[in-house]
Design goal:
Blueprint lengths: L1 H75 L11 H9 L10 H4 L4 E4 L7 E4 L9 E8 L4 E7 L7 E9 L8 E5 L7 E15 L45 E4 L5 E5 L4
Antiparallel strand pairs: 1-7, 2-3, 2-7, 3-4, 4-5, 5-6, 6-7, 8-9
Length: about 270
């Protein structure tokens, strides 16, 4: 019995000493658990916002690219997008499926190695206009119909009206070699008249570039008779030579007369 009483006494003493320690530790653990839970609850929104910011950051370059694209193409069409409508570059991309980067005057060089190019019109190809004094950023138009070696019809935007789309517009090749390096575009309202001479690069085709330029090898077709040219926008060196034969006219014979009116002689006859 004494041994049993001693054991009970020892266990009771240990229990009495440990209980306060356990009771003190439990609130600390509970408080730590609450602190951890509270901290986690604070971190959760932060992580969510970080994820949202990350997703916005992933989208932002696209938005920025779109804004940059609008700004670049807006300059090309005198910022036609401010009043609605569409400029020539995005219109040509959407209609032809030919997705070349850059402004219109850059399409010809940027298409090299990607899209085939040449001097022969084909439906669906893009006619690339060179920059000139009237169009500093060039122009692009989609060929909708080939009539003959000298005449086509095009669909394009931002030409006759700011931001507007024109379809079935006649275009005539007026280059001497019939290589579509210079064209005149039909004026609005189907008047039958054509505008100024515009220099062009040629046509971009919706097929891979095989390294061979599509050339116009046929004999040049006759140039249609059109209304007088308002202006030629080609560089002076590229305009056709027009030679005029100037003949110096020798003075004709001069008749001399006497005081009575009779013919005295002829000066210069036979010279």
């Amino acid at each position: 019995m004494r041994n049993g009483s001693a054991k009970h006494l020892i266990f009771g003493t240990i229990f009495a000493v440990c209980c306060p320690l356990l009771s003190a530790a439990l609130p600390s653990q509970a408080q730590a658990s609450q602190t951890t839970s509270h901290a986690a609850s604070k971190r959760a929104p932060t992580a969510h916002l970080a994820q949202a910011r990350s997703s916005k950051t992933a989208i932002r370059p696209t938005a920025s690219h779109s804004q940059h694209g609008r700004a670049v193409h807006g300059r090309q069409v005198a910022r036609a997008s401010k009043g609605g409508g569409i400029s020539c570059v995005p219109y040509a991309r959407n209609v032809s499926g030919i997705r070349v980067a850059g402004n219109a005057w850059q399409w010809w060089d940027n298409a090299e190695g990607v899209y085939a190019r040449g001097r022969v019109p084909e439906p669906g190809s893009v006619l690339a206009f060179r920059a000139n004094g009237r169009m500093s950023l060039g122009h692009v138009a989609v060929v909708s119909r080939v009539i003959n070696a000298r005449e086509i019809e095009i669909n394009h935007a931002n030409w006759a009206s700011r931001g507007g789309v024109s379809r079935g517009v006649p275009v005539v090749d007026v280059s001497e070699a019939n290589n579509w390096s210079a064209v005149r575009v039909g004026l609005a309202h189907n008047s039958g008249d054509f505008g100024s001479v515009y220099p062009t690069y040629g046509f971009i085709y919706d097929r891979p570039d095989n390294g061979v330029m599509v050339a116009h090898n046929a004999r040049p077709a006759p140039t249609p008779q059109l209304n007088p040219i308002p202006s030629d926008l080609r560089p002076v060196a590229e305009r056709p030579w027009r030679t005029y034969e100037e003949v110096a006219e020798a003075p004709g014979p001069r008749v001399t007369r006497t005081s009575s009116g009779r013919v005295a002689g002829v000066v210069g006859a036979g010279q």
